[in-house]
Design a protein that fits this description.
- This protein is of the alpha/beta class and 348 residues long.
- It folds into two domains: 118 residues, Aspartate Aminotransferase, domain 1 (Alpha-Beta Complex), CATH 3.90.1150; 206 residues, Aspartate Aminotransferase, domain 2 (3-Layer(aba) Sandwich), CATH 3.40.640.
- A hairpin with a 2-residue loop joins strand 5 and strand 6.
- Helix 1 runs parallel beside helix 7, helix 2 crosses helix 6 and helix 8 runs parallel beside helix 10.
- The longest helix is centred in the C-terminal third of the chain and has 24 residues.
Length: 348
C-alpha cells in the first residue's frame, strides 16, 4: 500500500504513538472557552474577518491597521488565497528544501511552477538563492521550518528581504512557528513585498478551530484574497474567531511555559536519535526533527503497520532518505517510541 500524509492526519488514541502530525498536545489557554456559555451569534461574519480580531492583530504589527489582515481557515487557506492571487498569470515560486509538504501541490494547483533552492543542513545557501530568485514571481520562507525545526540566520533573512524588495519579488513568510523558538528572538520579514502567514494552531494549540490569517501592506494582495474568499469559504468560523480573540489577550507567560516544555522534548528526542547513531540536525524551533535512515519508505511503512508508530516520509518534504518526527507528544511516549524505533533499526 502506498502511504501518504492523509493516512495519518487525525489518527489518535492510546494504541498509536504518533510522531506524525504537527498537532500540539498541550492544551489551549482556558480563557478561550469562557465565551461559550453566552455566545449566541449565528449569522455570516465579515469575509475579511471580524473587526475585533483584526484590530487586535494590528497591535502586533507596526504601522498596520485592521484592513491589512484577512482572517482565514488556518494558515493553509491563507497560503492558498495568496498563491491563487499571485498565480493568476502563472510564473514560478522559489521554495527552500526541505519544505512543508503542502507547498508544492498548492503552488501547482494555483498555476505556479515550484523551483527549489538548496540548503546546507536546512539553512538557505544565498548564492544559490540569488541565482534562482531572479526568475521567480514569489518566494516562500518558513523559519523555523517544518520539517527541520531549523532557523534561517538573521543575516540571511535580511539579505532575502533586500534582494526581493529590489527585484519586486513577493515574499510569502510562513510564520506559524514564530513563537516557538528556543535559541533567539524571531526575526520577522518586513516590507511592501511581504505577505506574512500565521495561525493560532501552534502558538495556542488551536489546530481544530481553524483560525489563521494573512497580513500585508500590499493592498492588491489583501483585496485580491478577500475577493477570492468571498466565492470560496466566505467567512471563517465566527465562534472560532471570537476564541482566537480571547487568545490574543492571554499573558505571554502562557507561551513561555509551553516553549519550555517544547525545548525539553527537543533535547530528549535529539539526544535519543543521536544515541541511535542517526544523522540529525538540531531543531532551533517548532517541534520537528528530520533524521536520516536507511530505506525510509520501508521504515515509515513498517513502523506504522507493524508497530503502530507514526512517522512521516522525508520524501514528502523534498528530503528523500529521511523521516520526519514531530515531538508534539509527552515525554513518556517519546521515550517509548524511540525505543521501538531503535529496536526496529537494529533488526534491519
Amino acid at each position: 500500500m502506498k502511504i501518504s500524509p492523509s493516512m495519518f492526519i487525525g489518527v489518535n488514541g492510546d494504541d498509536h504513538i504518533s510522531f506524525g502530525a504537527g498537532q500540539p498536545d498541550l492544551p489551549p489557554p482556558e480563557d478561550i472557552y469562557k465565551i461559550l456559555g453566552k455566545y449566541r451569534h449565528f449569522k455570516y461574519g465579515l469575509v475579511q474577518g471580524q473587526d475585533n480580531l483584526r484590530e487586535q492583530l494590528s497591535k502586533e504589527f507596526k504601522n498596520s491597521t485592521k484592513d491589512d489582515f484577512v482572517i482565514t481557515n488556518g494558515a493553509s487557506e491563507a497560503i492558498d488565497l495568496t498563491l491563487r492571487h499571485l498565480g493568476r498569470e502563472g510564473g514560478s515560486i522559489l521554495l527552500h528544501k526541505p519544505y512543508y509538504y503542502s507547498y508544492v501541490p498548492l503552488a501547482q494547483f494555483n498555476n505556479l511552477k515550484p523551483i527549489f533552492t538548496e540548503t546546507v543542513k536546512g539553512r538557505i545557501d544565498m548564492d544559490d538563492f540569488d541565482k534562482k530568485v531572479r526568475d521567480c514571481k514569489a518566494v516562500m520562507i518558513n523559519s523555523p521550518s517544518n520539517p527541520t525545526g531549523r532557523l534561517q540566520k538573521i543575516k540571511t533573512l535580511k539579505e532575502i528581504e533586500k534582494l526581493c524588495q529590489d527585484l519586486k519579488v513577493t515574499i510569502i513568510s510562513d510564520e506559524v512557528y514564530k513563537d516557538l523558538i528556543y535559541e533567539r528572538e524571531n526575526y520577522m520579514l518586513q516590507g511592501d513585498q511581504v505577505v506574512t502567514i500565521n495561525s493560532f494552531s501552534k502558538t495556542f494549540s488551536m489546530c481544530g478551530f481553524r483560525v489563521g490569517y494573512l497580513y500585508s501592506n500590499h493592498r492588491d494582495i489583501i483585496e485580491g484574497a478577500t475577493e477570492l474568499k468571498t466565492h470560496t469559504s466566505m467567512n471563517t468560523s465566527i465562534v472560532s474567531q471570537e476564541m482566537a480573540y480571547e487568545a490574543t489577550k492571554v499573558d505571554r507567560s502562557f507561551v513561555d511555559r509551553q516553549v519550555k516544555i517544547w525545548k525539553e522534548r527537543r533535547d530528549l528526542i535529539y539526544k535519543g536519535l543521536q544515541d541511535l547513531g542517526l544523522d540529525v540536525w538540531k531543531p532551533e524551533g517548532a517541534f520537528y526533527v528530520l533524521p536520516k535512515v536507511k530505506d525510509a519508505d520501508r521504515t515509515v511503512s513498517d513502523l506504522y503497520f507493524k508497530y503502530k508508530v507514526i512517522t512521516y516520509l522525508g520524501e514528502w518534504f523534498g528530503a528523500p532518505g529521511r523521516i520526519r518526527l514531530s515531538y508534539a507528544l509527552d515525554s513518556e511516549k517519546i521515550e517509548k517510541g524511540l525505543k521501538i524505533i531503535g529496536n526496529y533499526l537494529k533488526d534491519q
